Amino acid sequence: ERIEDKLYQNRYLVDSGRPHIKVRPHQSPSPSLLALTRVCPANCYELNESGQVEVTPDGCMECGTCRVLCEASGYIEWNYPRGGFGILFKFG
Ligand code: SF4
Questions:
Q1: ipTM of the complex
Q2: Is-contact 85 15, C-beta < 8 A?
Q3: The domain 3-88 is classified under which CATH number: 3.30.70.20, 3.30.565.10, 3.90.950.10, 3.40.50.1010?
């Protein structure tokens, strides 16, 4: 079985109304914030029609890329999902 097939079996539980990642409001995104629209493997980040970066963390794989790039500078807030929510890895 391929790893992609196994990953496809992961389930994601949305913690409604309590997103674990938030983007700080901004007029125009910094380069590192903008980069998230390209590097997030789950495509959680996108530009809205006003040119600002928005996050929809449903499906986030908790890879930490956006956290490394943007948390220290304060562009995003990042917390692990509450217990029982978020990605539930299932291998084998
Ligand atoms: Fe995307 Fe990874 Fe950030 Fe989740 S932790 S939103 S998968 S870059």
A1: 0.99
A2: yes
A3: 3.30.70.20
Strand partners, 55: 45
Judge if the beta carbon of residue 87 lies within 6 A of ligand 1: no
Helix, coil or strand: residue 12: strand
Report the atom number in ligand 1 closest to the C-alpha of 65: 8
**Site to substitute for ligand 1 among 20, 33, 60, most atoms within 8 A of C-beta:** 60
Q: Mind listing the pLDDT tens digit for each residue in 13-60?
A: 888 888 899 999 999 999 999 999 999 999 999 999 999 999 999 899
Q: How far is the CA of 76 from the centre of ligand 1 (A)?
A: 11
| Domain residue ranges of the chain, discontinuous segments joined by + | 3-88
Let me know the angle formed at the C-alpha of 77 by 68 and 86, rounded to the nearest 5 degrees.
85
